[in-house]
Amino acid sequence: MGRLTSTINAVQSRAQKSLVAYIVAGDPHPDQTVDLMHTLVAEGVDIIELGVPFTDPEAEGPVIQLAHERALVHQVTLLKVLEMVTAFRLEDATTPVVLMGYLNPIEAMGYEAFAEQASLSGVDGLITVNLPPEEAGPLAIALQTKGIDPIYLLAPTTTDARAAAVCRASRGFVYYVSLKGTTGSGGLDIKAVCERVAHLKAQTSLPLFVGFGIKDGATAAPIAKVADGVVVGSAIVTLMGEFQASPQALKSAVIELVRDIRTALNASNP
Amino acid sequence: MVSKQLGTNEALTSFPDQSGHFGPYGGRFVSETLMAALDELTLSYDGLKTDPEFLAELGSDLEHYVGRASPLYLAQRLTDHAGGAKIWLKREDLNHTGAHKINNCIGQALLARHMGKPRIIAETGAGQHGVASATVAARFGLKCTVYMGSEDIQRQSLNVYRMKLLGAEVVPVTSGSRTLKDALNEAMRDWVTNVDDTHYIIGTVAGPHPYPMIVRDLQSVIGREARAQFARQHGGLPDAVMACVGGGSNAMGIFYPFLEDESVRLIGVEAAGDGIMTGRHAAPLTDGIVGVLHGNRTYLMQDQAGLISETHSVSAGLDYPGVGPEHAWLKDIERAEYVAVTDEEALGAFRQLNLLEGILPALESSHALAHAVEFAATLRKDQNIIVNLSGRGDKDIPTMAKIDGISIG
User: Fold this and answer.
1) Residue A243 — pLDDT band, cuts 50, 70, 90?
2) Res B3 pLDDT > 50
3) Coil, helix or strand at residue B254
4) Which residues lie below 8 Å from residue B303, measured CB to CB, with a gap of 6+?
5) Distance (Å, whole) CA A5 – CA A147
6) Which among A55, A106, A162 has CB closest to B35?
7) Could you list the residue range(s) of the whole structural domain that residue A89 is in?
8) What is the CATH number of the domain that holds A54?
């Protein structure tokens, strides 16, 4: 069993919900990324989702687009992201790290070479935003050979037939994108999301995580009642932009936000 | 038959396959949210493309609204100047709105109406596809939003104002390189958000399946007409067919009906910008690497780390780091050839066509003209080249005036 599944199982056995935090590697500066990852873990984040900077992040809203641009100013390539994971692993051998990005940098490196190096760095899973299972066969084989979980997305527009196929292809967990739109969009209809999540959960034995639109404890708690975990991205990345000039202020703001969400999650699942 | 080269019995015209692939290219690389919309579009199009009522409506609008068929014109003075093969111009510049883009937009607007989507969105570089989209939106009473890089808005202010006159909302895109590729990203983001009531009219033969197929089919009216016109006006088949390639819709449109005519050379002309050696160009088929962007696998301008490079061309319509997947495949199987022409050569051809034929070509089409003159000189006088004159150059007058140091206020 991989680090991802054993971590999710351990959280479940404590009758808690998983908290996944997303940051873009190299944002606001490459020197801060590994330290921020440790900070997130110290405040109760169970899984780190590390964004791989790309020039054309077509599924991202303005907040995360800017994060990609900030990281690319410092030439944070996929190889550099893997180096950051290696550095993180020197002090943390247990927290799963999932990469989230777009296919082209992985194609450029080559599927086998990427799987090999990602595995050596200590990467546990991969979400490729623009790679639906239909096109993912060769990459999924390369990943699973090296013990890396391919994780696919479900959307509000996904039909039941597709949902079943997506869940069959996924390993570790399935990621439900809770709204039609880009990352960081507002106006989450919590009741509708909960109904949809309950419907999807009946169709798969994999843990179901929910992301897009969860920005604080108040939005996280009701969703965590039905989902196995929540992903918080744009809310953290907003702080990266706001406090990019001051690493200390950034750290304090991140700690405050993550504590609020962790506390709300724990309270909603007593 | 050309397809014998592939070791298969499939006709070249039978691609893409069921899942949208042209050999290793094409496919569907998008976020999950869009998969259902692409399935819906595929299904609707499959039903409509042979539907007599749809075809009649499309045919009627192409004739009475667009003004088709566009003439095939023997450019005698240009031919004399080149001193070789006869150069024939397929006059897409004479279409309503001044370019080939309208052929696709009429068809896709009918598709949108059929799918019950009251709103269309589009990306645009030179503004021609934006204008064509805004035009059909007005024609069919649809709401229209056009995404355009802020850099291109500067270069093509005439078309921006024109789109506004047509009632479209033009949204400047300030992310990334602020050109066509970023406008495409932003249009995808809009579509993800508004997929229930919105149809995205992609303007070129790129993007996720079924777009490269739909746009090619709708543009292939150019090649069907040209093939029949040439047979009637001259007899037989031309020796070569030539077109500029940015995303590649005008080229695919004129190439497609000639794919099985083995004797006809198909030549696509990319934008070499400042020159291929300088790296400042927009010629992925000439000097690119295979990758995945904007929903399809194709040749791309990218660096070793897989990040997309900024491109350069004097013509905004060719200033794009990718190219339609069918072109990538036609290159690999050697059914089509691709060359590149610099800004300077294209500007020369632009001036030349004005002086020799009294025709103002778009800067995009000027790339094909530049190569045609050079290529014609290598052929015999009894040979024939058809060049797709994909658009007219009114929109480029401010750019040319600026180059010539003339203020036209």
Assistant:
1) very high
2) no
3) helix
4) B309
5) 11
6) A162
7) 3-267
8) 3.20.20.70
Q: Are B370 and B348 in contact (CB under 8 A)?
A: yes
Q: Inform me whether the pLDDT recorded for A179 exceeds 90.
A: no
Amino acid at B209: H
Q: Are strands A18-24 and A229-232 parallel, antiparallel or unpaired?
A: parallel
Chains A and B form CB pairs within 8 A to the count of 120
How many domains are contained in chain A?
Answer: 1
Binary contact (B291, A104; C-beta < 8 A): yes
Which residues, in sequence order, are CB contacts of A134 under 8 Å at separation 6+? B19, B28
Distance CA B108, CA A44 (A): 50
- Gap from A64 CA to chain B (nearest CA, Å): 12
Q: Which pTM does this prediction carry?
A: 0.96
A→B interface, C-beta within 8 Å: 54-62, 65, 69, 72, 77-79, 102-109, 129-132, 134-135, 152-159, 162, 166, 177, 180-182, 185
Mutate which of B33, B298, B301 to disrupt the A interface (most A C-beta within 10 Å)? B33
Q: Is the pLDDT of residue B75 over 90?
A: yes
Chain A closest CA to B292's CA: distance in Å? 5
Per the CB < 8 Å rule, is A130 touching B36? Answer: no
Tell me the pLDDT tens digit for each residue of B117-145.
999 999 998 899 999 999 999 999 999 99
pLDDT (0 to 100) of residue B4? 42
Question: How do residues B337-387 score in pLDDT, each as one tens digit?
Answer: 999 999 999 999 999 999 999 999 999 999 999 999 999 999 999 999 999
Q: Which residue of A has its CA nearest to B31?
A: A130
Model pLDDT, residue B1: 40
Q: Do A181 and B31 touch (CB under 8 A)?
A: no
Looking at the complex, report in whole angstroms how far the Cα of residue A162 sits from the nearest Cα belonging to chain B.
9
| Residue B150 scores a pLDDT above 50 | yes
Q: How confident is the model at residue B280 (pLDDT cuts 50, 70, 90)?
A: very high
User: At B264, which helix (H) or strand (E)?
Assistant: none
Chain B residue numbers touching A162 (CB-CB < 8 A): 35-36
Three-state secondary structure readout of chain A: CCHHHHHHHHHHHCCCCEEEEEEECCCCCHHHHHHHHHHHHHCCCCEEEEECCCCCCCCCCHHHHHHHHHHHHCCCCHHHHHHHHHHHHCCCCCCCEEEEECHHHHHHHCHHHHHHHHHHHCCCEEEECCCCHHHCHHHHHHHHHCCCEEECEECCCCCHHHHHHHHHHCCCCEEEECCCCCCCCCCCCHHHHHHHHHHHHCCCCCCEEEECCCCCHHHHHHHHHHCCEEEECHHHHHHHHHCCCCHHHHHHHHHHHHHHHHHHHHHHCC
Q: Which of residues 195-224 of B touch A (CB under 8 A)?
A: 195-196
Distance CA A43, CA A24 (A): 18
Q: Which residues of B are catalytic?
A: 101, 123, 390
pLDDT band at A185 (very low <50, low <70, confident <90, very high): confident
How many residues make up chain B in this entry? 409
Cα–Cα distances in Å, from A129 out to A126, A193, B206, B209?
9, 20, 19, 17
The shortest C-alpha distance from A181 to chain B (Å) reads: 4
Least confident of A68-77, B41-50, B150-159: B150-159
Supply the pLDDT for residue B42. Answer: 97
Residue B126 has φ and ψ, to the nearest 5°, of -70, -15
Mean pLDDT calculated for residue range B310-332: 95
Are B193 and A159 a contacting pair at CB < 8 A? Answer: no
pLDDT at B8: 55
